[in-house]
Design a protein that fits this description.
This protein has 77 residues and is α+β, with helices and mostly antiparallel strands. Helix content is 29%, strand content 34%. It has helices at 3-13, 39-49; strands at residues 21-28, 54-62, 66-74. The protein has a three-stranded antiparallel sheet, covered by helices on one side. A hairpin with a 3-residue loop joins strand 2 and strand 3 (66-74). It is elongated, with a radius of gyration of 16 Å. The two termini are 27 Å apart.
């Protein structure tokens, strides 16, 4: 994920600031569904995520190399 890269870019531009950066990824059957192509595709993707188990992973980073990854499973067993 990109949180670490984002944190370093912010730190280079604003060295006196401590700004956390985060990226979130949804996984359905261990694969990210990607970005929707249009509104109809976005609706289809949301319908897919409304039933099965899926995972949401968020990567949080601070300038200086501090990085944490959080994961949550969601859906019906």
């Amino acid at each position: 994920m990109n949180a670490g890269r984002k944190a370093w870019r912010v730190a280079e531009r604003y060295p006196d600031h401590l700004d956390p950066e985060a990226d979130t990824l949804v996984l359905l059957d261990d694969h990210p569904p990607g970005k929707p192509a249009d509104l109809a595709d976005a609706r289809r993707m949301l319908e897919e995520l409304s039933g099965p188990i899926h995972e949401v992973v968020t990567d949080v980073a601070l300038p200086g190399g501090v990085q944490v990854e959080l994961g949550i499973g969601s859906g019906l067993p």
